[in-house]
Design a protein that fits this description.
Length: about 220
């Protein structure tokens, strides 16, 4: 897609993941990104059947319901259910193509990825086409570093822009790396705490914890 030269295009973000369960590491990063990049909206998009990892024990419906609870009252964040509704494996490229069809060619689309997700991007289905449909915004995550050399490092270098304003000049094709507030929280840790009968309070919204309790998840 070509540069329009205009800096007034709206930018929409999509943040994929298992969200098993969603936590403040996801939510705070999402909100900071909305404000930093002035996104019209950032959609948290839970994967249905992730291609790279075993299907989570917690159903996609529960994971999406927890996101819905977590973003309630914050209109700039939303839950995007498309990967739950699609049969078979959830491929990100298919979601980006669908989103592009809905948004139209002129709207900027940013796919948000944590640093850890970027490390194995070359194993993603049609990974080299991702930038044809969206920008990629990489967010730093405590405990993870981007590679200094190799295929991923070269890909980052080739497409990276220093000024995030560049994301407004065209609808897709750039990579921005953003340092946000580091929050060392992971879903794995939350699941482990709950399985051990310990408290996960203050690591995720209370409404999500209540949902987990009511539905006896992660025990
Ligand atoms: P798990 O521990 O089950 O692997 P997770 O906490 O890594 O889960 P995911 O749902 O796998 O959460 O992550 C979705 C996206 O959010 C990924 O791109 C991941 O890098 C990013 N992410 C997760 N936790 C954080 C965090 N604390 N800070 C920044 N990014 C995060």
């Amino acid at each position: 897609m070509s540069e329009s030269g205009s800096s007034t295009q709206p930018l929409v973000g999509v943040f994929g993941g298992t969200f098993n369960p969603v936590h403040y590491g996801h939510l705070r990063s999402a909100l900071e990104l909305v404000e930093r990049l002035q996104l019209t909206q950032l959609r948290l998009m839970p994967s249905g059947q992730p291609p790279h990892r075993e299907a989570p024990e917690c159903s996609a419906t529960h994971r999406a319901a927890m996101i819905e609870l977590a973003v309630q009252g914050e209109p700039r964040l939303a839950c995007d259910m498309r990967e739950l509704q699609r049969l078979g494996k959830s491929y990100t490229i298919d979601s980006l193509i669908e989103l592009r069809g809905e948004l139209g060619a002129g709207v900027g689309l940013c796919m948000v990825l944590g640093c850890d997700a970027v490390l194995d991007i070359t194993s993603w289905y049609r990974w080299q086409e991702l930038l044809d449909w969206a920008h990629i915004v990489v967010i730093a995550r405590p405990g993870w570093e981007l590679p200094g050399e190799g295929e991923v490092a070269q890909w980052l270098k080739r497409h990276k822009v220093e000024d995030p304003q560049r994301l407004r000049y065209r609808p897709a094709g750039c990579i921005a790396i953003e340092e946000l507030r580091p929050l060392a929280i992971s879903s794995t840790e939350i699941r482990d705490l709950l399985a051990a009968g310990r408290s996960a309070r203050y690591l995720l919204p209370q409404s999500v914890l209540d949902y987990i309790e009511t539905n006896t998840l992660y025990r």
